[in-house]
Structure formats: structure tokens, C-alpha cells
From TrEMBL:
Protein species of origin: Mortierella isabellina
Gene3D superfamilies, per the entry: 3.40.50.360, NADPH-cytochrome p450 Reductase, Chain A, domain 3, Nucleotide-binding domain of ferredoxin-NADP reductase (FNR) module, Translation factors
MF (Gene Ontology): [methionine synthase] reductase (NADPH) activity; flavin adenine dinucleotide binding; FMN binding
Pfam family for this entry, one: FAD_binding_1
Name of the protein this chain belongs to: Methionine synthase reductase
Residues in coiled coil: none
The organism's place on the tree of life at top rank: Eukaryota
Keywords of the record: Amino-acid biosynthesis, FAD, Flavoprotein, FMN, Methionine biosynthesis, NADP, Oxidoreductase, S-adenosyl-L-methionine
Length: 745
């Protein structure tokens, strides 16, 4: 046995908070178990003295196309530049990856990270865990952590705390005995029925409410507290009835947050229209809505809005760059959650607090002067289906034995099927608290456990050459009904908020031809945004002669509209100069590479987005060929990947011989996988390759940024469509690329 290390270091990288939360919980539990160590975000790797620490535990998620999260970019640069091949020779490492099998580069960052540190001399002391968000991260994360402890004690010194760690961890034990409910407990719990779900499912999901801009209108907070009620969740408890013990429960999340009340009269500090504590990597800008249009037509499955925001001054950006929108949680939902948590008066809502505690999650770190209501508007996610750890926590604060058994069952091994069914119902925090009326969690413990409320990212669909102080973007309004038999109407957070803000486009939504509406100046509608740093490389090459293949069905076309507008402007500039530099007679056509566009939609008269723009780009020669995949106009459904297959010989020449860059934007699962397959088959047929070699070639192209993908995981479109057809309810699925709305998390 090798000498044990005196301490461990955990290094995490997280884009939306999961990896951070998991890493910090591992750290707290390790300390409770008597290990000594520290926990850092990867970009602060210098603080970890990695080469000397001995035991390193890496927890990383993925973003983009198998890329590491932004807060590890500096660390990756350090790894890439590391010349000392023995840098990690003294280190024992373990890697936990959080990924999603809806993306083809599943857990790429974790896999690459393990390989990289190994190449730099590290020894892997514990097999890496690769968790899948599509299935539920807990399925891999919990056993991975459970089995880490005995292995870790072989490699890392453990203090004898004088206390039996198992006793100390009793509160976090992973097994519970089922306590028999009393008759009163049973009587107190209303069984689930279609009538006690509280909220009647509307015949048609109407997109508009009278909700005002809650960001700027504080008077709003005293709105009707009973405006919405939660839905009761359906739980099949047959398996529970036969169980006597539940096992495999997640640990209770470590306690950290403390709410310290500030003096009455303390004013909340604002950063423009959002509270100061909301952390953004670049400054928040209060962009003003200058144009709104509905670019899908009547009868389209999804309603698509196109917004133009005035930034107030010329700004440095590129078409395709991502920016974040800081949308609050739905105000009615916030109000209802607060009431349920016994925050009943306006005074209680507006009470200011400092959130204090060791190792607070990033989204609470700056909350030193924040009102109770703003914590629920901007800090925590109250709409995403719960993690098992949240249910476990709620179980601790549930007094009715019957309800408590059910919650514990849902997060136990025995209740796996029921937990999956629960996720399908996509309950909000309010729904869970409605289902378990005797559950009264302290707000501080909820702050510890609820995920971070995230900005939603969109990509810029215009050129700064055409509109230097404006950004445009397009998105589908996320509204859908959960799978049978739950049938609960759900709305995306950000897209619904934007839709409500700009609700005056309602009239246009009912017109056969959508019209561009100029918002009257008196209606100053503010959308707080910030630019993403480390913007992806999903932007135009500076060399205008580089040929490009652009593949983007649905709203995936939006960044390409920006690309095309940019090339169009560049062509106009060169034309106006009468040629190029020292060669005024040169034909500018040679300076602009061919651009081929593959675009897909359902029906020409319903959701052929940006049709006018695209056809004009063809006429002006900006687009060399526009191939349209129309999926619902004939018996045979045609998708973009079918057209790639049809044209594979020409495309082989275009990509391999002419060196065209490939851009794919949109759905990660169906579309991107189909396109990837079609490209691989193209290489097999015309590049004389085996399938494996073709796949490897595509991976190399991705690494070399010749093949760029900007993908988002949509919830199964097939499920939603099946339901749409079954219910004939108006459902509009999904959002836009980058967009992480309730539907996609
Ligand atoms: C925009 C986006 C892109 C993603 N790309 C990938 C990917 O390429 N491969 C993968 O395995 N997971 C991918 N994921 C899934 C995340 O890794 C997973 O949801 C994880 O739980 C997020 O953890 P975090 O909150 O710590 O960032 C992606 C998620 C999003 C939102």
C-alpha cells in the first residue's frame, strides 16, 4: 500500500450548477467522515497545489458539444500548456462526469480530463463515474459517492474524530424503516384524483396573462396570493404498500445557508433592472425591446417570436455569439410558493437578508442584501423536476407518516420507477408541496438544495454591420402538456416571460401573415441581458472565401440568418469599394466562398421561418444553394439529414476537396445525430473508409473546429407530437438553441 496523502482536493467545473452542488456535497461529507481537504472551482486550480496534494477528485459537467464548462477554461489552458509530463506523478485522481446521452459527445469533458491528467503522470485510484442527466444523475452519482469512501480511505489519511462517522451521519443515512401511518395520517391525506389536482387543465393553453413586467414593478408583489395552486402529483404506491424498508436513499444535502435579517429600511441594491446579487460574467445591460414579430403563422405547432433589442450604443459582437437573458421565475408561482412557505405579508416578502454560510453555492455567494421575494424570483429554480436529494430533504420536514413514507419511497431504490414517473410529470416545487401538505421545510434548507435559477442563452441572429447597436434573436414559446396520464400544462420560464412582456404581438399571432410591430416608445420594455464570455467558436470564419455548409432546421436557422446578413453586408462593402484593395477590378465573387444552406420545417405556410430573408439571400448570391426539407407536406417526411444523404457525393467534394466548414445548429438528439450519421456514411462511401474511421474523422473535424455544432437537447419531440395529436390541445414545444428552459432540464 502506498503512503497515504494527508489531504484531498476537489476541483469542480459546472455550467448550470449541478457539478458544483455535487462537489460541495462530496466535500462536506468527506469532512464529516474525518478526511481533510478543500474544494475549488477548476479555474482556481492554483489554490489547490495540485502537484503536492496527493489525492484529487475532479467533478465536471459538459456544455456545447462535449466542451468543458466555462469555469474550467483556465484550468484546461494550464493542462494543454503543461510541459512537465510527470506533473501529476504524485497524484491519485478520481473523475466524476455529468453528461447527457442526448448529446453525442457524452461526458466528453470527463473522459478527456481523465486521459489528460493520466498522460501527465497521474494514477487513477477510482474508476470514473459518468452520470447521465437524461436518466437522472443520481443513478450514477449516488453509488459513485457511496463507493468512494472505502477506496478513499486507502489513499487519504483519515482523522479519528472520536465519533463514529456512521452515527454522525445518521441523519444522512441511506436506509429508512417505513413507519406505519396512523389512521389520522391516512385520513389527512387526500388521495390523488383528477378533481383534486386543483388546477383545471385548460382546453387551450393560452399564452397570454396580464402579468406585468415584474422586474420593474414592485407594486406587483402584493398580487393575489391564491392566483395559482399547485397540481397534486400522481404516485403509484402499490410497491410501497408491500415494502418494510427503503434503501438507496440519497444523502441529506449538507446544511450551509443562513439567512441573517438586515435592518428594516435596508434598500435592495439593483444592477439595472435585476438585483445586485445575480452574478453574471459580464455586465448586465438593460436592453430595450424595439421590435417584436411573430414569425410563425397561424396553425403552426410552435409559436416563434423574433425580438430586436436596442442596446443603446454600438457594441462589439458577432453573429452567432450567445447572450444570456435574466428572466425571473413566474411571479404568480413565486407568490404561491412564498405563501406555502408561510411568507404571507408584503413586509415579510420585502424583508432584506444577507445569505451567509461556508461554501455557499455560486448563485448565493453575492446575496448579501436581498429580499425574500427576490431569492425566489432570481436565485433558485422552482420549476425543474426535483432531484432525489430535494425529496429526501423534504421528507425530513414532513410530519404526516403516510406522506413521509411516500416521499422517502420516491427517492429510494424501491421507488425508482415512481421517481421516473414523477420526473415525467415535471412537478414544480409548489406541486410537491401541494402533494405533501404536512411538509414544512425551512427556507434556508431549500436554499441549500434547490438548483440555481439560470439565465437562458440565445444566439444573435443579426450582423453588427447592419445593426451595430441592436441584437435580434428568435425563439419558440415553450408551452406543452406533460405526458399521459398527467396532462398538466407547463410553460417555459424565459420564453413565457418574454412573451408576456411583449404581449402586444398577440394580435399578430392570429393574423395569417405576421407583421413586424414597432413597440410604442411609451411602452419601454426592458430585457436585462449580458454577453457570454468564452463565446463558442460558432461564429463566421474571418476568411470570407471559406466555403460553408449551414445545417439548421427550425429556430436552428436563427444564427445563420446573422451569418448570411454579415456576409451580405461584407459583399456590399466590397462592391462599394469596387473590388479589393490593390485589385480594384477583381471580381468579388472569388472573395466569397460558396454557402450552402440546409433548412428544415414542417409546412411552408406555417413555419417556414425567415423565408423572405432566405430567398433574398439566394437572389443576391449570398446563398449558393438553399435546400429545404419539408416534413409535413407529403406522405414522405423529409428531414435535413435525408437531404444530406441525397447530396452526399457533391457534399463530399464540397467538404473534403473544397474544405467547406460544417455548421449544425438545433436539436442534439434526432437532428444532430442523424446529420452526423449521414456525414459518416458519406465518408464511408466516397472517402473509402470503414465506419469507425469515418466516425473518428468526424471527431477530428470537431476538435479542429472544421465541424461546429451548437446543440440543445429538446424533450422528446416525438412524445410531444404524439400528445399533440392525441389531445388536439395547443402545445408548442421547445425553445431555441442554447435555451435551457424548463422543458430541457
Ligand atoms: C447547452 C448544453 C450542452 C450540453 N452538451 C453536452 C454534451 O455535449 N455532452 C454531454 O454529455 N452532456 C452535455 N450537456 C449535459 C450537461 O453536462 C448535464 O446536463 C449536466 O448535468 C450539467 O451540469 P452542470 O449544471 O454542472 O453544468 C449539455 C447541457 C447543456 C445545457
Amino acid at each position: 500500500m502506498t503512503e497515504k496523502a494527508p489531504a484531498y482536493a476537489i476541483l469542480w467545473a459546472s455550467q448550470t450548477g449541478n457539478a458544483e452542488w455535487i462537489a460541495k456535497n462530496i466535500h462536506k461529507e468527506a469532512e464529516t467522515r474525518g478526511f481533510k481537504g478543500e474544494c475549488f472551482v477548476m479555474n482556481e486550480y492554483e489554490l489547490a497545489n495540485m502537484d503536492k496534494t496527493g489525492v484529487l477528485i475532479f467533478v465536471t459537467s459538459n456544455t456545447g458539444d462535449g466542451d468543458p464548462p466555462d469555469n474550467s477554461s483556465k484550468f484546461w489552458r494550464f493542462l494543454r500548456r503543461q510541459k512537465d509530463k510527470e506533473y501529476f506523478a504524485r497524484c491519485k485522481v478520481a473523475v466524476l462526469g455529468l453528461g447527457d446521452t442526448n448529446y453525442s459527445n457524452f461526458n466528453n469533458s470527463a473522459i478527456r480530463l481523465e486521459k489528460k491528467v493520466r498522460d501527465l503522470g497521474a494514477t487513477v485510484f477510482y474508476e470514473k463515474g459518468l452520470a447521465d442527466d437524461a436518466e437522472g444523475l443520481e443513478n450514477v452519482v449516488d453509488p459513485w459517492i457511496e463507493n468512494l469512501w472505502p477506496v478513499l480511505s486507502d489513499y487519504c489519511e483519515k482523522k479519528d474524530t472520536g465519533v463514529d462517522p456512521n452515527a454522525k451521519l445518521a441523519a444522512a443515512m441511506s436506509e429508512v424503516k417505513i413507519s406505519p401511518p396512523t389512521d389520522a395520517d391516512i385520513a389527512a391525506q387526500e388521495p390523488y384524483s383528477m378533481t383534486n389536482r386543483r388546477e383545471k387543465l385548460p382546453d387551450v393553453v393560452t399564452p397570454y396573462t396580464t402579468l406585468q413586467n415584474s422586474l420593474v414593478m414592485n407594486e406587483q408583489i402584493n398580487g393575489d396570493a391564491n392566483a395559482i395552486a399547485g397540481h397534486k402529483i400522481h404516485i403509484d404506491t402499490e410497491a410501497l404498500a408491500n415494502a418494510t424498508q427503503l434503501t438507496g436513499l440519497p444523502r441529506i444535502p449538507a446544511a450551509s445557508a443562513k439567512l441573517v435579517a438586515l435592518d428594516k429600511g435596508t434598500e435592495p441594491s439593483q444592477k439595472g433592472s435585476v438585483p445586485q446579487f445575480v452574478y453574471t460574467p459580464t455586465p448586465v445591460m438593460d436592453a430595450v425591446v424595439s421590435k417584436v414579430s411573430c414569425i410563425s403563422r397561424k396553425g403552426a405547432l410552435k409559436r416563434t417570436l423574433h425580438l430586436e433589442l436596442d442596446l443603446g450604443h454600438e457594441t462589439d459582437f458577432q453573429p452567432g455569439d450567445a447572450f444570456g437573458v435574466l428572466a425571473p421565475n413566474d411571479e404568480d408561482l413565486v407568490q404561491a410558493v412564498l405563501r406555502r412557505l408561510d411568507i404571507k405579508t408584503a413586509e415579510q416578502e420585502m424583508q432584506m437578508y444577507a445569505v451567509q454560510g461556508d461554501d455557499l453555492p455560486s448563485h448565493l455567494k453575492h446575496a448579501t442584501c436581498v429580499s425574500m421575494v427576490d431569492l425566489f424570483r432570481y436565485a433558485v429554480d422552482i420549476t425543474t423536476a426535483p432531484r432525489k436529494a430535494l425529496l429526501r430533504l423534504l421528507g425530513e420536514y414532513t410530519t404526516n407518516a403516510q406522506e413521509k413514507n411516500q416521499i422517502m419511497f420516491l427517492c429510494s431504490k424501491q421507488g425508482t420507477a415512481q421517481f421516473n414517473a414523477l420526473r415525467e410529470q415535471q412537478p414544480t416545487l409548489l406541486d410537491i408541496l401541494t402533494t405533501f401538505p404536512s411538509c414544512h421545510p425551512p427556507i434556508e434548507r431549500l436554499l441549500d438544495t434547490l438548483p440555481a435559477h439560470m439565465p437562458r442563452y440565445y444566439s444573435i441572429a443579426n450582423s453588427p454591420l447592419a445593426h451595430p447597436r441592436a441584437i435580434r434573436f428568435a425563439f419558440n414559446i415553450v408551452q406543452y402538456t406533460t405526458a399521459d396520464p398527467y396532462n398538466v400544462a407547463r410553460k417555459g420560464v424565459a420564453t413565457t416571460w418574454l412573451d408576456n412582456l411583449t404581449g402586444m404581438v398577440e394580435a399578430a399571432a392570429h393574423d395569417a401573415e405576421p407583421t413586424l410591430i414597432d413597440i410604442a416608445v411609451k411602452e419601454r420594455i426592458v430585457v436585462p441581458i449580458f454577453f457570454k464570455i468564452n463565446n463558442n467558436s460558432f461564429v463566421l470564419p474571418t476568411d470570407t472565401s471559406k466555403p460553408m455548409l449551414l445545417i439548421g432546421p427550425g429556430t436552428g436557422i436563427a444564427p445563420f440568418i446573422g451569418f448570411l446578413e454579415h456576409r451580405d453586408e461584407q459583399r456590399k462593402i466590397r462592391n462599394s469599394l469596387g473590388g479589393v484593395g490593390a485589385f480594384p477590378d477583381r471580381d468579388i465573387a472569388n472573395d466569397f466562398g460558396e454557402i450552402r444552406v440546409y433548412y428544415g420545417f414542417r409546412e411552408r405556410n406555417k413555419d417556414y421561418l425567415f423565408n423572405t430573408e432566405l430567398e433574398e439571400f439566394v437572389q443576391r448570391g449570398v446563398i449558393s444553394s438553399l435546400e429545404l426539407a419539408v416534413s409535413r407536406e407529403s406522405e414522405k417526411k423529409t428531414y435535413v439529414q435525408d437531404l444530406i444523404r441525397r447530396d452526399k457525393q457533391e457534399l463530399y467534394d464540397f467538404i473534403v476537396n473544397k474544405g467547406a466548414l460544417i455548421y449544425v445548429c438545433g436539436d442534439a438528439k434526432g437532428m444532430a445525430t442523424g446529420v452526423h450519421e449521414a456525414l459518416a456514411d458519406m465518408l464511408v462511401e466516397y472517402g473509402n473508409m470503414e465506419k469507425m474511421e469515418a466516425i473518428r474523422t468526424l471527431t477530428t473535424w470537431i476538435t479542429e473546429k472544421r465541424y461546429l455544432r451548437d446543440l440543445v437537447r429538446y424533450q422528446s419531440l416525438r412524445d410531444l407530437l404524439a400528445q399533440y395529436n392525441a389531445n388536439k390541445t395547443r402545445q408548442i414545444y421547445s425553445g431555441h438553441k442554447h435555451h435551457i428552459d424548463t422543458l430541457t432540464t
